[in-house]
Amino acid sequence: MRITALRTPGAFRTPGALGTTTALGAATALLVVLATAATSAAAAPTGRETRPTAAAQPLAGGMGASITARKSADPTHAEESAARATKSPRATKAPARVEGAARIHYAYSPEDTIRFSVHAEAAPFTRPLPVPRGERGLPTDARGTVRISHRIASTGFTAWSVADVDCLVTGGSTATLTAIVRKSNTEERGTRFGISVQQGRDGQPDRLGFGWGVANVGAEGTGTCMAPAPFAPVVRGGYRVTHADLPPIPAAPASASGSGSGSGSGSGSTPRPEAQRG
After folding, report:
1. pLDDT digits (tens, 9 = 90+) for 248-278
2. What pTM was computed for the model?
3. What is the rounded radius of gyration, in angstroms, for the C-alpha atoms of the chain?
4. 123 near 144, Cβ under 8 Å?
5. Among residues 15, 43, 135, 183, which is most buried (max CB within 10 A)?
6. Phi, psi of 127 (to 5 degrees)
7. What φ, ψ does residue 108 adopt, rounded to 5°?
C-alpha cells in the first residue's frame, strides 16, 4: 500500500494492469516449461516400472545405510515409518496456506503501528493468462485476502488496504505471496504488491517482509509471487505457514495438443478475452 513513511513515493504507482508486460513475459517462459514437461509426461511409457527395485539399488552411506536397510525389514520400524508418512505434508496433500494476523516492527518507522492480516490458500492452475498456452494458469495460483493498516504516529492518520491474493508459494516455514488491491484509502485499485511470511521456529519470532520501502519496484510494477525476504519481526500476533510441494502439471488441453496445421498455432493456443487477469 502507498504509505509515505513506508516506501519510496510512487513506487507502487503502476499504469493499467500493473506491470502486465513484465509479469506476462515471465509467465510465458514458465508456461513453455510446463507445457514441455506435460508433453514429456504424456509420452512416458505406461508399462511395467523400469526403475530398479529397492533391493537392486546400491546403498549409499556405508554402515548407516546398512542399519537403515535392517530397520526397514523390521515390522516394528516399518509401522513407525508408515505412521510418519501419514503425518507428512505430502501424505495429507493439504494445500499450501498462510493464516494469521500480527503487528510488525519496521525499523524505519518504529513508532508507527503496522498490522498485516493474511489468509491465503493455494489454488493451482485456476487463473488463466492471456498468452499462448496460458489457459491453464500457473502452479502458484492462489486465492485469499490480505488486509494492511498503518497508523502514522506523528500525524494520527491510518492508511489501509484490502487486497485479493493471486499467487502463493511456500518453502518449509516461509511463504511468498502477492495480492491485488481491491479497495484502499491511499492506493489505486488494481495495484499488485508482494509480501513474505516466516513462521518462527525454536523460540524465534515470526517475520514478515513487504516490497515497498526496501525495494525498487520500478514502473513495471510487481510480478506474481515477487517479494523480499521476511525482514520485519512480529511484535504481537503471529502466522502459521502450511507448506506444500508444487503440484503435478495437468494434461494439456486436447485443442492445444491436436494435429492442427501450421507450426503449433492451433485454436487452443489463442487466449480468450475473458481469460485475462484483472
Report:
1. 988 776 555 444 444 443 333 333 333 334 4
2. 0.62
3. 23
4. no
5. 135
6. -120, 90
7. -90, -5
